[in-house]
TrEMBL record:
UDP-N-acetyl-alpha-D-glucosamine binds at R92, R121, P122, V123, D124, Q125, D304, I326. Residues 7-404 form the Enolpyruvate transferase domain. It holds the Pfam family EPSP_synthase. This is UDP-N-acetylglucosamine 1-carboxyvinyltransferase. It comes from the Bacteria.
Length: 416
């Protein structure tokens, strides 16, 4: 199992090019199932989760051609309507094939995702929404088996805001008969990016970017081209790294208009930001100021940045409080950071952090994707050596992170 060895203390300096967003690429790849035409994608990130999704899609019969960050999909010959347990268990986002397969072929069988390190993460809202659209759904032998003649548009109000739930229901509704109104829809930029692709494929969607999506179903969709939106979480992760180590970096190929919550907190930390259309220069000297925040849905502070900002808080000049409201178990990095000398206590969904002068390197264990990134940041700021184990979590969602960090002066290497 690969590990990352980090010798902390280097200031970061130079340019980093941000990749396409994992959480946009995954639903967008599934949209290839909705048409027999070619869906041509660019800015697709090199990630384990993307490879897993392409494997899953290929075994349905979707034709996949890949060339660097470009992927062309063709769904003219779909032969299997099933997402098997072996793949779903490694990636929950596999649930995103359910809506498109059901809408286009009238049937889908998708393994029920099991538990997850960061929370129980049920998919009841996906199921409830598809049932409202007229699907007949049974849960049998660990599989969701959905069938329908033709989905029929309706009004759906989800119990909570769900990102992949909104995406699944939107992909189902675009081929349903009549009008579907999705209330309480997620407004995350990745949902919006999927909606833009669907419109390019011939879907009729109003209210894109709002919490009320109004979809007029169409008979069929056609092929289209689309560039996946830049990864705001990867971008903010690099900005947190420089907040922790000090230095002067410029991130490129980014979208500055979808990162307000993170950028505001970085300014509060003391990072000097110069923001262009698709780049951000971040300059940092001295100790970070502590920042208190609670995670919430977009456009609020993203749960996917909670751990990385906590890493910065561990060495801040004072105390802070971090409240996680989206997932019930997303503090597993806390014990690992404490192994590096951080002073964090938790009470329910709130972490209380007393900034310490200096972290000291130690072996630590990555437990999930964003927790892994936070341990890398802590390791970059720590004195001495930090060995981050189980970095397969990191590889799921960051495109060659250690290579990008090496290029801006970090002393980090992958140990096979
Ligand atoms: N929820 C339910 N029932 C449902 C759906 C969601 O109870 O049917 C709950 C979840 O358990 C959670 C909350 O609603 O407590 C929000 O979950 P959501 O459905 O929005 O999360 P998701 O769609 O499973 C996506 C991202 C996550 C990101 C969350 C929140 C993808 C592939 N994943 O997950 O990304 O944290 O939205 O923004 O888009 C990551 O990239 O590290 C990651 C975990």
């Amino acid at each position: 199992m690969d590990k990352l060895l980090i010798k902390g203390g280097n200031r970061l300096q130079g340019d980093v090019t941000i990749s396409g967003a994992k959480n946009a690429a995954l639903p967008i790849l599934c949209a290839g199932l909705l048409t027999s035409g070619d869906v041509q994608l660019s800015n697709v990130p090199h990630l384990q989760d993307v490879r897993t999704m392409l494997r899953l899609l290929a075994q349905t019969g979707l034709k996949v051609e890949q060339n660097g960050d470009k992927v062309t999909l063709n769904g003219a010959n779909i032969t299997s309507l099933e997402a098997p347990y072996e793949l779903v268990k490694t990636m929950r986002a596999s649930i995103l094939v359910l809506g498109p397969l059901l809408a286009r072929f009238g049937e889908a069988k998708v393994s029920l995702p099991g538990g997850c390190a960061i929370g129980s993460r049920p998919v009841d809202q996906h199921i409830k929404g598809l049932q409202a659209l007229g699907a007949d759904i049974t849960i049998e032998a660990g599989y969701i088996h959905a069938k329908c003649k033709k989905l029929k548009g309706t009004r759906i109000v989800t119990d909570m805001i769900t990102v992949t739930g909104t995406e699944n229901l939107m992909m189902a509704a675009v081929l349903a008969e009549g009008e579907t109104v999705l209330e309480n829809a997620a407004r995350e930029p990745e949902v919006t990016d999927l909606a833009h692709l669907l419109v390019a494929m011939g879907a009729k969607i109003d209210g894109i970017g709002t919490d009320r999506l109004v979809i007029q179903g169409v008979e069929q969709l056609h092929g289209a081209s689309h560039a996946v939106i830049s990864d705001r979480i990867e971008a903010a992760t690099f900005l947190c790294a420089v907040a922790a180590t000090g230095g002067d970096i410029t991130i490129r190929n980014t979208r500055t208009d979808i990162m307000d919550a993170a950028l505001d907190k970085l300014r509060e930390i003391g990072v000097r930001l110069t923001v262009g259309d698709d780049w951000i220069r971040a300059q940092m000297d001295g100790r970070p100021q502590p920042v208190t925040f609670r995670t919430t849905e977009y456009p609020g502070f993203p749960t996917d940045m909670q751990a990385q900002f906590m890493a910065v808080n561990t060495i801040a000049n004072g105390a802070s409080r971090v409240t996680e409201t989206i997932f019930e178990n997303r503090f597993m990095h806390v014990q690992e950071m404490n192994r590096l000398g951080a002073a964090i206590e938790t009470d329910g969904n709130t972490a209380f952090i007393k900034g310490v002068e200096q972290l000291v390197g130690a072996p630590v264990m990555a437990t999930d994707l964003r927790a892994s990134a936070s341990l890398v940041i802590a390791g970059l700021a720590a004195r001495g050596e930090t060995l981050v184990d189980r970095i397969y979590h990191l590889d799921r969602g960051y495109d060659r992170m250690e290579v990008k960090l090496q290029a801006i002066g970090a002393n980090i290497s992958r140990i096979k």
